[in-house]
Write the structure tokens for this entry.
Amino acid sequence: MKDRADLSRALIAKAIHDLEIARIGLSHEAPLDTIAFHIQQCAEKVLKAFLAFKEVEFPRTHDLKVLLDLAIQQAPQLELFREPLLAMSSYAVEMRYDVDFYPGVEEITSGLEHIQNLLKFIQSLIPTLSK
């Protein structure tokens, strides 16, 4: 099994892939629900990368609130991301089954900005990512 640094790096790499797909999707007018899904996936993987690095057991869940609550115990500054992350939580599951829920371009653009800031912040907390 990978050590915590390896797992953190792998999760960050996958999060960056989700972020890049979301950016490409937005610039090529892809379906917004698909872009939103990748934004949520990026947030989920970033939080899990941080928790793995801190050796915090985390559940197999898409629930960003659960993951954020665990992460805040290790880095209280993450509380600043609560509102935008909770807004993204429904992108993973609810949106796939609710035909009435569909984010707009403005919401997607805002989500991308927030997730980029979260990624940068988490990367600053995991010093081994530069290796």
User: Anything to note?
Assistant: The chain has one domain: 4-126. The CA atoms of residues 86 and 114 lie 11 Å apart. Helices lie at 4-27, 32-53, 64-72, 82-88, 94-97, 105-125. The chain has six helices and no strands.
